[in-house]
Design goal:
331 residues, alpha/beta, globular, 37% helix, four-stranded antiparallel sheet, nucleotide-binding, binds adenosine-5'-triphosphate, Phosphonate transport system ATP-binding protein, 21% strand, six-stranded mixed sheet
Length: 331
């Protein structure tokens, strides 16, 4: 995106009232604090990327915007509605204005592509639909138009499970468009895709958002994609916002430095490097890492690996991304 385009979009969005406003949002699940005192304003037309490690609270934040979670404390306002206060009917009306795209696409595999897209028109509508015959001509033409927009018109009558991952995510985007949403939420929409498909899907989301003046809030863990396809990056760590900046002129190293500054140990830096898919932090841990991020004073010598054969356990799925392991050592 050109700097001029980004400036024009920011100027327009700066003048508008925020579409999304979070104030002091804390969310606890039993003893886990998923979000901590989050304040966030998102204005119409912004394309915001939520960036952070696994377990940092990205999905939880997105789910609050759609009323799928209620905050333990604080307020969540979306499109002028105080979301946690909405009853079921009002929530359905809000959800009809907010599209949601998920990591695993959530298509019905045995239905055709067109039928899957048509189900997007059911947001806010009650009652079952009986296959494709249950939808009127106008809706079918609209669905076909969206399939054309995402480049899959010729696949309309194919079963959804015969498509590639990238194609399925494009179908999910077409389905979300059936609602004519004002806000599009996307939870790790490219996490299951290869790099090329990821680029294509993110490019498509951005193009559609700009065409339609959509506001997008998208969680990602790849810094490169966040920088290429977002206007603004909101970085989360342990449920707190630790970074909130436009992508204008921002470099990957700067993003990593900010994450580095909030990391409390070398182990966490390594986890950040692995999860954010950068090798910039994975040089010689004794030199490059500490030098780049200036962490010596904070972490102390005893936390740094003293053996060059140490190995980082990249399996951060356990949401405690803090394990250093030497070969052969059991945890
Ligand atoms: N329904 C739930 N019950 C209990 N704990 C939960 C629930 N949902 C989320 N959590 C916890 O809240 C924290 C934040 O989770 P969340 O899914 O929002 O993180 P995330 O950044 O989206 O992670 P990922 O990138 O892996 O999807 C994690 O510690 C998670 O285990």
């Amino acid at each position: 995106m050109s700097v001029t385009e980004q400036q024009a979009r920011h100027t327009a969005s700066d003048q508008a009232e925020p579409l999304v406003r979070l104030r002091g949002v804390t969310k606890r699940f039993d003893r886990t604090v998923a979000l901590q005192r989050v304040d966030l304003d998102i204005r119409r037309g912004e394309i915001v990327v939520l960036l952070g490690l696994s377990g940092s609270g990205k999905s939880t934040l997105l789910r609050h915007l759609d009323g799928l979670e209620r905050p333990t404390a604080g307020s969540v306002s979306v499109l002028g509605d105080e979301v946690p206060a909405l009853g079921q009917r009002a929530l359905r009306r809000l959800r009809a204005r907010v599209g949601f795209v998920f990591q695993q696409f959530e298509l019905v595999p045995s239905l055709t592509v067109l039928e899957n897209v048509l189900t997007g028109s059911l947001a806010g509508v009650r009652g079952p639909r009986l296959g494709i015959l249950g939808y009127g001509r106008t809706l079918k033409l609209k669905a076909l138009g969206h399939l054309d927009r995402v480049g899959l018109l010729e696949r309309a009558y194919q079963r959804a499970d015969t498509l590639s991952g990238g194609q399925q995510q494009r179908v999910a985007i077409a389905r979300a468009l059936m609602q004519d949403p004002e806000i599009l939420l996307a939870d790790e929409p490219v996490a299951s895709l290869d790099p090329e498909s990821s680029e294509q899907v993110m490019a498509l989301i951005r193009e559609i958002a700009i065409d339609r003046g959509l506001t997008v809030v998208c969680s990602l863990h790849q810094v490169d994609l966040a920088l290429s396809w977002g206007d603004r990056i909101v970085g989360l760590r342990h449920g707190e916002v630790v970074l909130d900046t436009t992508t204008d002129g921002l470099s990957k190293t700067e993003v990593m430095e900010i994450y580095g500054r909030v990391a409390t140990s070398t182990r966490e830096l390594q986890a950040i490097a692995v999860e954010l898919e950068t090798d910039e932090l994975l040089g010689d841990p004794d030199d490059d890492l500490r030098g780049l991020l200036g962490v010596e004073e904070r972490v102390g010598e005893d936390e740094l690996p003293d053996d060059p054969e140490w190995e980082f356990d990249a399996d951060v799925d356990g949401r405690e991304p803090d394990e250093l392991r030497r070969p052969g050592r059991t945890r």
